[in-house]
């Protein structure tokens, strides 16, 4: 509604007085200085890649989309005594690209444990006068141990050696002739790999041995990045040959795997895929596995008693070979130990191919009672929730393995770290933090099976595409596990990072991030929570997110495919959102600077003058006049100085004012008469964008009758001025207070400027701790001063002579 009006203050005195003060302190933005910044500028044709036949403008795979296929047939043996793997892999590489390839690039990620690797030589440290015990132990270990692949030999299909070149953590194999489109090339790689002791050296794989006093001396082995793997060749980058520096994870191709793992005879092995030679299990274990498929709670396959017996007796001589098969996966991980307890239960889902997914956990006795209660149940819950948001789980198994790796994912298998602690009395107990930590890490790592193990994004370039999207879904799953779960994703939790100096854009490459956890995990997860709950709403968001997930399942999306799909499917222009949350380091801080209340001025001069007199009487009395009370003025003392103007005031209605009002009423047309009858309150709110990130403005209004309403103003309010805007609201009610972001849903950094009238910021102050005692060399040297003189003597220990 457009109404020409004269402003007259009619709302509560306290609100309007505060508004007047706020308006005096904040001047209008001087647009003549060129402060305009288009936060809604479109990305298309400017910052985003031009659509192609391979990936189109809607964010979907194009009609000529392609990706490579790499199949592996691997035999690997674990030497427990010297902690080494020895393997041979037969690789079949199929070229679906339109290009002829003269060579192949492979990832040798374990090369980052070479002393001269780029990762080791570029390690940085913080300025400090202290060093951790772990860092000293790592330095010592790296002096007498070196990781990386050894005994590498590459053989072509004719049995002849193929020349190769190692460039830090990558290997280039020269092909006998260019590999044309549609052709396949088979070759074999022999290798050996010393495993790192994870708790000393770090990393995503390795071993952990229980050798402290009272422990059984046995080890857990986790194998990841354990074989040379083909790097990606894609339509948007060609060969992906960014070196592995430790943070950016793994960009890989899909393929079929047949893997035989030879381990000590008394070990239990867990791995990507399905166990093919189930006769390696005892008849009782096979029966339990069948029972677990339809069980409502986890069933032990290898019982605690069986694992304890294997731990207690001397290691069995000989080996056993476990054979696993996995189709259409992009990697393969496994674990082996005689300590493993194994439990499992089936998870029903709507799938013709996999109507039951076997959720399974493997853990040592030291992980009880935490793991047998929560690990497998957390897997089942993850599948239930992620299936709703993305797509039906497409594999037969989902596994969680306890070991020294705190949390890491591979197709169908994850490594997770939290355990109980053993007290001085020998009892195993766990904290609430450890419990939530286990549930959360299992949800997160199993969730990675969806992102990026199926929706196959480039983790090394855009870490947020798997960590951020997965952390968003982890947040949903955790809140559906327990409403009070301390989940990462609440908007209020990201504020400290967003106003810090360590922030870089989410779109920054993974190895350049200053705060990896906040940038790759928490901020994009929070952004998607806000996009779902506040910007789009659940219906639009959920449909668009499922669209993206299903479009790019078993394919390789880029960020632009995600952005375009979310916009195209929801029907909402979100360029402003991506620019603010993913491309900038702005934060959210919307200040409610002032509130003005107005009504239309009455056409009745009596009413106008009465309102003007009331406003005048509310104005403060002059300080001088106040101090002159008791002193007669000339007008008060001498009647001769008083006339008509002293007997009346400027608020007295005159005859001419009445005639003018009657004349205006006669001349008014129908539209003007209708407008003059409008008597609602007109409120104008001035919002200032302090943080720079444009967002919707959620405004709660409270009225004098005790009622309230919350209005959601779209982000487009900032389109013409991203720094300060005035917004109008009309109500028949009298406003007494207003609040921006009342439910803390936009990550607004400052609550102090969200309220009007302003409120006192109440806090509780804590006494600072007492300063530490100063140096006292006499006390610390066991020297006493005689009370009778300045003589000193050395204090002798009790009983010493």
UniProtKB/TrEMBL annotation:
<feature type="signal peptide">
    <location>
        <begin position="1"/>
        <end position="22"/>
    </location>
</feature>
<feature type="compositionally biased region" description="Basic and acidic residues">
    <location>
        <begin position="657"/>
        <end position="672"/>
    </location>
</feature>
<keyword id="KW-0378">Hydrolase</keyword>
<protein>
    <submittedName>
        <fullName>Aminopeptidase</fullName>
    </submittedName>
</protein>
<dbReference type="Pfam" id="PF01433">
    <property type="entry name" value="Peptidase_M1"/>
</dbReference>
<keyword id="KW-0031">Aminopeptidase</keyword>
<feature type="region of interest" description="Disordered">
    <location>
        <begin position="652"/>
        <end position="672"/>
    </location>
</feature>
<keyword id="KW-0732">Signal</keyword>
<feature type="region of interest" description="Disordered">
    <location>
        <begin position="749"/>
        <end position="801"/>
    </location>
</feature>
<feature type="domain" description="Peptidase M1 membrane alanine aminopeptidase">
    <location>
        <begin position="382"/>
        <end position="581"/>
    </location>
</feature>
<keyword id="KW-0645">Protease</keyword>
<dbReference type="InterPro" id="IPR027268">
    <property type="entry name" value="Peptidase_M4/M1_CTD_sf"/>
</dbReference>
<dbReference type="InterPro" id="IPR050344">
    <property type="entry name" value="Peptidase_M1_aminopeptidases"/>
</dbReference>
<dbReference type="GO" id="GO:0004177">
    <property type="term" value="F:aminopeptidase activity"/>
</dbReference>
<dbReference type="InterPro" id="IPR014782">
    <property type="entry name" value="Peptidase_M1_dom"/>
</dbReference>
């Amino acid at each position: 509604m457009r109404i020409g009006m004269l402003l007259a203050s009619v709302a509560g005195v306290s609100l309007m007085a505060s508004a007047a003060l706020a308006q005096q302190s904040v001047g209008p933005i001087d647009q003549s200085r060129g402060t305009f910044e288009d936060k809604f500028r479109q990305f298309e044709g400017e910052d985003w890649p031009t659509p192609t036949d391979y990936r189109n403008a809607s964010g979907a795979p194009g009609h000529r989309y392609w990706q490579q296929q790499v199949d592996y047939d691997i035999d690997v043996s674990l030497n427990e005594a010297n902690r080494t793997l020895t393997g041979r892999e037969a690789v079949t590489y199929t070229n679906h690209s339109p290009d002829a390839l003269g060579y192949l690039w492979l990832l040798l990620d374990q090369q980052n444990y070479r002393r001269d690797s780029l990762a080791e030589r570029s390690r940085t440290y913080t300025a400090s006068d202290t060093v951790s015990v772990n860092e000293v132990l790592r330095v010592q270990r790296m002096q007498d141990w070196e990781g990386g692949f050894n005994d590498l030999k590459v053989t072509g299909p004719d049995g002849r050696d193929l020349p190769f070149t190692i460039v830090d953590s990558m290997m280039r194999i020269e092909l006998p002739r260019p590999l044309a489109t549609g052709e396949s090339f088979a070759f074999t790689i022999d290798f050996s790999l010393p495993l790192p002791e994870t708790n000393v050296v770090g990393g995503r794989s390795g071993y952990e041995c229980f050798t402290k006093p009272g422990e059984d001396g046995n080890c857990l082995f986790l194998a990841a990045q354990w074989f040379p793997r083909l790097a990606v060749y894609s339509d948007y980058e060609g060969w992906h040959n960014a070196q592995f520096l430790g943070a950016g994870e793994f960009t890989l191709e899909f393929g079929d795997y047949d893997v035989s793992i030879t381990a000590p005879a008394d070990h239990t092995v867990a791995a990507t895929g399905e166990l093919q030679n189930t006769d390696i299990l005892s008849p009782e274990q096979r029966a339990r596995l069948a029972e677990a498929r339809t069980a409502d709670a986890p069933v032990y396959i290898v019982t605690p008693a069986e694992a304890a017996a294997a731990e207690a007796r001397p290691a069995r001589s000989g080996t056993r070979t476990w054979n696993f098969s996995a189709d259409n996966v992009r990697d393969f991980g496994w674990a082996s130990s005689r300590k493993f307890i194994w439990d499992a239960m089936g998870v029903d889902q709507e799938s013709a191919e996999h109507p039951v997914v076997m959720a399974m956990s493997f853990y040592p006795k030291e992980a009880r009672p935490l793991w047998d209660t929560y690990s497998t149940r957390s897997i089942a819950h993850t599948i239930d929730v992620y299936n709703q948001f993305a797509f039906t789980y497409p594999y037969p198994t989902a596994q969680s393995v306890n070991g020294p790796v705190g949390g890491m994912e591979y197709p169908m298998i994850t490594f997770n770290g939290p355990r109980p602690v053993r007290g001085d009395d020998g009892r195993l107990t766990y904290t609430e933090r450890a419990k939530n930590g286990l549930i959360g890490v299992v949800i997160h790592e199993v969730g990675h099976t969806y992102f990026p193990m199926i929706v196959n994004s480039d983790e090394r370039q855009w870490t947020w595409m798997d960590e951020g999207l997965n952390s968003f879904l982890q947040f949903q799953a955790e809140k559906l596990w327990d409403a009070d779960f301390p989940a990462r994703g609440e908007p209020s939790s990201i504020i400290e990072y967003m106003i810090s100096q360590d922030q870089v854009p989410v779109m920054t490459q993974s190895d350049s991030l200053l705060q990896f956890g906040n940038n790759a995990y928490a901020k994009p997860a929070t952004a998607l929570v806000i996009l779902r709950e506040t910007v789009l709403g659940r219906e639009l968001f959920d449909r668009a997110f499922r669209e993206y997930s299903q479009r790019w399942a078993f394919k390789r999306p880029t960020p632009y495919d995600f952005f375009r799909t979310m916009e195209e499917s929801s029907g909402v222009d979100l360029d402003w959102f991506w620019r603010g949350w993913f491309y900038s380091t702005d934060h959210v801080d919307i200040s409610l600077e002032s509130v003005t209340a107005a009504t239309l001025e009455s056409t009745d001069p009596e009413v106008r003058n009465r309102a003007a007199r009331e406003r005048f009487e509310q104005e403060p009395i002059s300080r001088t006049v106040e101090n002159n009370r008791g002193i007669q003025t000339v007008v008060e003392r001498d009647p001769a100085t008083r006339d008509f103007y002293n007997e009346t005031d400027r608020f007295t209605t005159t005859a001419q004012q009445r005639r003018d009002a009657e004349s205006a009423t006669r001349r008014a047309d129908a539209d003007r008469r209708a407008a003059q009858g409008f008597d609602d309150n007109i409120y104008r709110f001035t919002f200032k964008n302090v943080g720079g990130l444009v967002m919707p403005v959620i405004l709660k209004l409270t009225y004098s009758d005790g009622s309230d309403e919350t209005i959601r103003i779209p982000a487009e309010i900032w389109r013409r001025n991203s720094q300060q805007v005035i917004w109008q609201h009309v109500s028949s009610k009298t406003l007494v207070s207003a609040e921006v972001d009342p439910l803390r849903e936009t990550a607004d950094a400052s609550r102090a400027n969200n309220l009007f009238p302003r409120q006192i910021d109440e806090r509780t102050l804590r006494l600072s701790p007492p300063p530490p005692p100063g140096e006292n060399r006499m006390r610390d040297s066991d020297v006493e001063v005689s009370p009778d003189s300045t003589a000193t003597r050395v204090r002798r220990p009790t009983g010493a002579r």
